[in-house]
Amino acid sequence: MNKEIIIMGWAIITFLFGIFMFACAIYNPKKIIIGKLTESEIKNKEKFIYFNRVLYLFNGLIMVLIGVMLLLNIIDRSYIGILYSIPALILIIGTSISKKYLVKKHR
Protein backbone atom coordinates (compact mmCIF):
# COMPACT_ATOMS: atom_id res chain seq x y z
CA MET A 1 0.00 0.00 0.00
CA ASN A 2 1.04 3.53 -0.60
CA LYS A 3 2.25 5.44 2.46
CA GLU A 4 0.17 8.48 1.51
CA ILE A 5 -3.05 6.44 1.48
CA ILE A 6 -2.36 5.11 4.97
CA ILE A 7 -1.61 8.60 6.30
CA MET A 8 -4.78 10.00 4.69
CA GLY A 9 -6.79 7.17 6.25
CA TRP A 10 -5.42 7.96 9.70
CA ALA A 11 -6.12 11.65 9.15
CA ILE A 12 -9.76 10.89 8.30
CA ILE A 13 -10.09 8.58 11.31
CA THR A 14 -8.57 11.26 13.56
CA PHE A 15 -10.94 13.88 12.17
CA LEU A 16 -14.00 11.66 12.70
CA PHE A 17 -12.93 10.60 16.19
CA GLY A 18 -12.38 14.23 17.14
CA ILE A 19 -15.90 15.09 15.95
CA PHE A 20 -17.26 12.12 17.93
CA MET A 21 -15.42 13.18 21.10
CA PHE A 22 -16.56 16.79 20.68
CA ALA A 23 -20.19 15.69 20.14
CA CYS A 24 -20.13 13.38 23.17
CA ALA A 25 -18.88 16.21 25.37
CA ILE A 26 -21.63 18.53 24.11
CA TYR A 27 -24.64 16.23 24.13
CA ASN A 28 -24.04 13.88 27.05
CA PRO A 29 -21.43 15.19 29.51
CA LYS A 30 -22.74 13.13 32.44
CA LYS A 31 -21.61 9.94 30.72
CA ILE A 32 -18.01 11.16 30.58
CA ILE A 33 -16.36 9.57 33.59
CA ILE A 34 -12.81 8.61 34.33
CA GLY A 35 -12.34 4.95 35.10
CA LYS A 36 -14.99 3.13 37.09
CA LEU A 37 -15.95 5.84 39.56
CA THR A 38 -19.20 5.85 41.45
CA GLU A 39 -20.99 9.03 42.46
CA SER A 40 -19.97 8.59 46.11
CA GLU A 41 -16.27 8.73 45.16
CA ILE A 42 -16.61 12.12 43.46
CA LYS A 43 -16.20 15.16 45.74
CA ASN A 44 -18.15 17.69 43.69
CA LYS A 45 -20.16 16.16 40.87
CA GLU A 46 -20.88 19.44 39.05
CA LYS A 47 -17.22 20.48 38.97
CA PHE A 48 -16.21 16.98 37.91
CA ILE A 49 -18.67 16.95 34.99
CA TYR A 50 -17.74 20.50 33.96
CA PHE A 51 -13.99 19.80 34.09
CA ASN A 52 -14.30 16.61 32.06
CA ARG A 53 -16.62 18.28 29.58
CA VAL A 54 -14.11 21.07 28.97
CA LEU A 55 -11.29 18.53 28.76
CA TYR A 56 -13.08 16.43 26.14
CA LEU A 57 -14.26 19.49 24.18
CA PHE A 58 -10.70 20.81 24.00
CA ASN A 59 -9.26 17.41 23.13
CA GLY A 60 -11.90 16.79 20.45
CA LEU A 61 -11.19 20.18 18.93
CA ILE A 62 -7.46 19.46 18.83
CA MET A 63 -8.07 16.08 17.17
CA VAL A 64 -10.33 17.68 14.55
CA LEU A 65 -7.66 20.30 13.84
CA ILE A 66 -4.95 17.64 13.52
CA GLY A 67 -7.11 15.68 11.07
CA VAL A 68 -7.88 18.78 9.00
CA MET A 69 -4.25 19.89 8.93
CA LEU A 70 -3.13 16.44 7.78
CA LEU A 71 -5.87 16.23 5.14
CA LEU A 72 -5.09 19.68 3.73
CA ASN A 73 -1.30 19.13 3.89
CA ILE A 74 -0.86 22.24 6.02
CA ILE A 75 1.76 20.57 8.19
CA ASP A 76 4.63 18.28 7.33
CA ARG A 77 3.92 14.58 7.69
CA SER A 78 7.18 14.04 9.57
CA TYR A 79 5.53 15.50 12.69
CA ILE A 80 2.79 12.86 12.90
CA GLY A 81 4.20 11.25 16.04
CA ILE A 82 4.30 14.56 17.88
CA LEU A 83 0.83 15.52 16.66
CA TYR A 84 -0.78 12.30 17.83
CA SER A 85 0.91 12.51 21.23
CA ILE A 86 -0.63 15.94 22.01
CA PRO A 87 -4.23 14.69 22.63
CA ALA A 88 -2.93 11.77 24.68
CA LEU A 89 -0.84 14.07 26.86
CA ILE A 90 -3.79 16.41 27.36
CA LEU A 91 -5.97 13.49 28.49
CA ILE A 92 -3.28 12.11 30.80
CA ILE A 93 -2.64 15.48 32.46
CA GLY A 94 -6.36 16.30 32.68
CA THR A 95 -7.19 12.90 34.14
CA SER A 96 -4.49 13.18 36.78
CA ILE A 97 -5.64 16.68 37.76
CA SER A 98 -9.25 15.52 37.90
CA LYS A 99 -8.43 12.49 40.03
CA LYS A 100 -6.20 14.50 42.35
CA TYR A 101 -8.61 17.33 43.13
CA LEU A 102 -12.09 16.03 42.38
CA VAL A 103 -12.04 12.40 43.58
CA LYS A 104 -12.00 11.29 47.21
CA LYS A 105 -8.94 9.44 48.42
CA HIS A 106 -9.01 5.64 48.46
CA ARG A 107 -7.52 3.56 51.26
Keywords:
mainly alpha, 107 residues, elongated, single chain, 3 helices
Describe the protein's architecture and organization:
The chain is mainly alpha-helical and 107 residues long. It has one domain (3-102). Helix content is 70%, strand content 0%. It contains 3 helices and no strands. The chain has helices spanning 3-27, 45-71, 80-102. It is elongated and about 50 Å long. The model has no long low-confidence stretch (mean pLDDT 79).
Brief description of this entry?
The protein has 107 residues and is mostly helical. The protein is built from three helices and no strands. It is elongated and about 50 Å long.
Distance between termini?
52 Å
What is the radius of gyration?
16 Å
Largest sheet: none
How many individual domains? 1
How many β-strands, per DSSP? 0
SS-derived structural category: mainly alpha
Helix content class: over 70%
Helix segment tally: 3
What gross morphology would you assign? elongated
Order of helices and strands: HHH
What is the average of the pLDDT values?
A: 79
